Amino acid sequence: MSSFPSTGIRRLPPTVNEPIKSYAPGTPERAELKARLAAMETECPDIPLVIGGKEIRTGITSKATSPHKHGHVTATWHRARPEDVHAAIKASNDARKEWASWKWEDRAGVLLTAADLLSGPHRATLNAATMLGQSKTVFQAEIDSACEIIDFWRFNVQFAEQLFHEQPISGPGMWNQTDYRGLEGFVYAISPFNFTAIGANLPTAPALMGCTTVWKPAGTAILSAWYTLQLLHEAGMPPGVINFVPGDAATITDILLADRDFGGVHFTGSTAVFNSMWKTIGANMGTYKSYPRIVGETGGKDFLVAHPSADAAAVAVAIVRGGYEYQGQKCSALSRAYIPKSLWPEVRDRALAMIAEIKMGDPNDFRNFMGAVIDKKAYTRIAGYLADAKKNATVLAGGGCDDTTGWFVQPTLIQTDDPSYRLLCEEIFGPVVTAYVYDDAKWLETLQTVDQTSPYALTGCVFARDKDAVADAHRELRNAAGNFYVNDKPTGATVGQQPFGGARASGTNDKAGSKLNLTRWVSARTVKETFVPPVEWRYPFMSAE
Ligand code: NAD
Questions:
Q1: Could you give the residue numbers annotated as active site?
Q2: Shortest-distance Cα residue to atom 35 of ligand 1
Q3: CATH number, position 70
């Protein structure tokens, strides 16, 4: 494709966060989504690999099912063979020169088109796929597979423009410039199951900056990943820029990380997997053409700490919304709460009353607040934690599981007297909140406990009306969370408003959907041009007195 033949300096369309639709009874979006859900229940696409724009069906297939109805197959998907992974590397290498030579505004135009397609004609499809494939309620799907993706695509374009505007100063007689080159190697994008938006962002952020990519989606989110890819192609993403390679993670990863042209990894998922990739990259360092960029957002053990001055009603709502929305499977989900003795009876009773009202089931029934957890592996892991809690702590609400039709885990509230109890330390990734009740007089000590209890540092929040207490929390918990909330739950980060990412064992904190993240996908070239070069080699100081 040739570039847009414009000599004007193009100004971007204005960027605002995509409004969240309500899906209330009687709205057109509700009718459209219900119709799309009903149709998708019977469709069952046969999902291929897409390499260099070509669909490849390997014949080695897996079935995707609905977590809330595990007998229902939503799609069949083809798994990559080693030769397909090598073909994906070649396709991304072949596409790189052309894609990198596009004017950046033309690359941006693809994403802006994709954002508008999603805002309009593709919205119901991507939301329905996320509801059926990942068991999100309509609201959880809307804020993920519609709004967050649209925001990633529109805001990243704006952030890229800001970055490109960063240019060096020039002295007289010269012109200094920074050329933001895409990486000279492919970017490996590996996405988790829990956000359709992460799958959409991991390959497209590097692509915007001129990189070509190999995208391995999670098998448990294959349906929404497939519709995302189709949308991007419809928006004009050229063949070879995003090569879609689902399959066995370890095999695919081993091949990609052993390749000379591996330029970087854009990962979101668990800490253990990211650590293993980092080790492999370290061991392969002699192989690569360039030092690879390693970007990973990983696990969390997200906290709420309430001061005695906090509003008990607000704390209880934060526990319920922060802990149980999307079945506690947000990386930012609240999973440990520290409540002062004086506030605990009211917080507990309010939370228990709300939990008793929560409806859980098939997201097709819009009255449900929760769906099922993603798969059998997650169900078994969470059930193990619940069994432990029944023995070693007090289960105040929930604690039950049912896998008859889907992977359902009740919203669970646990109380422990042991601040180092494993349910306060380990990532569970399910609808389980563990509370520790502290003596009101031990506020500062409790903040230190919160800071030191888990290896993660992703999100956390403090509830307090006393401003000195808020200041204490800022000071003591400064390194305990990459996203910190005051009098708000620790979930619900919005692109452009709360750039997302954590430190310690929670990742490299490159803040998805921000300029910081985009800088990782460029290798800056500094250019100095001298207008009239000197023709005399001697300097004036060398002249005779
Ligand atoms: P996961 O680590 O199991 O899988 C993530 C991706 O890695 C998937 O595509 C998976 O197939 C792949 N993978 C698995 N084994 C691999 C291997 N050996 N080599 C390379 N890739 C491999 O995580 P998940 O269950 O999909 O997602 C949940 C995890 O993701 C939680 O730990 C959660 O905290 C984290 N998460 C973090 C953020 C964040 O921004 N920090 C956001 C979402 C999810």
A1: 297, 331
A2: 269
A3: 3.40.605.10
